[in-house]
Description:
Blueprint: H1 2-23, H2 31-53, H3 57-60, H4 63-86, H5 91-102, H6 110-118, H7 125-147, H8 154-158, H9 165-178, H10 190-215, H11 247-250, H12 269-301, H13 307-317, H14 323-331, H15 335-360
Amino acid sequence: MADVVAGLAVFGAVIAVGWLLVRTRAVPADADGVLTRVCFFAATPALLVTTLSRADLTAVLSRSTAVAVAAELTAIVSAWCLHRLVLRRPTAEATIGALASGYVNAANLGIPVAVLVLGDAATIAPILLLQLLVLTPATFTVLDAVTRRGNPSRLATLTVPLRNPLLWGVVAGTAANLGGVDLKEWGGGYPAQGLEMLGRVAVPLMMLALGMSLAGAPRPLRNPGPDETGTSPQGSPAAEAGSEAHAVDTAGGRLPRVEEEPAHRVRSTSQCGAIRRSGLWLAVGWKLAVMPGLAVVVGLAAGLSGGQLLAPVVTAALPTAQNVFMYASRYGAAKDLARDAVLLTTAGFVPVVLLAAALLH
Length: 361
C-alpha cells in the first residue's frame, strides 16, 4: 500500500509541475497538444513495443484480463440501458452517456497507472485492443445510423483503428514476443535502444501533458458558451490527442458534425437541465463506483482475490477517455455531459484506486 501511495504521489507531483508550467506561463497554454502528439505517435507506441516484446503473454491474457474486459462491456451496456430507458435520452445521447460511463482512458492514464500501481504496462494492452477494435467502430456505426446523415467516407471512418499507432505498437510488440525476436539483437541493438529511449519518456510526458491541460480546463456542471462548443475538455483542441482514438482527426477520417437526434417530446429549460445533470452524475457514478464494483463481483466469481483482483479493479477505476468528448463533439450529442464526465472522473479516480489498493494489494 505504501508503494502505491508513493507512486501516486509522484504521479500527482509531475501533473502539478505541468499545471504550474502553464499557470506561470513558462510554456504556452497549448503546449499540452505538442506533448500528447509526441506521446501518441512516438513515445507510447515505443513503450508498448518494448513492454509487450518481453512480457509474459500468458499473464497478460489471463482471467484478470477477462474480468477487466467483462466489467467494461457490462458497464457500458447497462449504462446505455439506463440513459436510454430510464432517463429517456435519444439514442445518440444515450450512446455518449454509456461511453462516458465505461470507456476508460487506457492510453494517457491507463499506462502510467498500470506502471505505478501494477508494475507492468502490458496489462492495459487487451483493454486498448477492445476499445480500438470493438467499441470505437461500434460507436461510429451507431452514431452514423441514428443521426441519419450520409457519411461519404464510411470506409475511412470504420478503418480508423487500423491507422492508430497504439494499435500497431501492440501488434508489433506481440508479434516480436510470439516470434521469439530479441529486439536487442536485431539491427545491432540500435533500434531497441531508440525504442527504449522513447518508451522511457512516455509516462512523464503523459503526466506533464495532463497537468498542462488541466490548467485551462473549464468548470464542470455548466452549459458551455457559444465559443466553447468546439473546445476539448482540457480547454485545448489538441488535447483530443491524449486519447487512443485521436487518429480520427490526424489520419484523415474526420467524422461528420451533425445535429443531435431530437428528443421525443419538448421539455422546459429547467427539465432539460435537470435531466442533463442526472445523466452526468449517472455517468460519473457508474464510472467511479459501479464499474469497479462490477470488476470486484466478476473477479470474485472468476476465483480472483488479492493482487490478482487489483488489476481489473484499477483498470475499471480509470477515468473516462477524452475521445468520448471528441465523439460527442463530432456528432453533436451530449457534448457537455462528455466534457464534464472526463473532468470529474479524472479528478475522482485517485481515491478509488487508493481504496482498491488498500483493500486488495
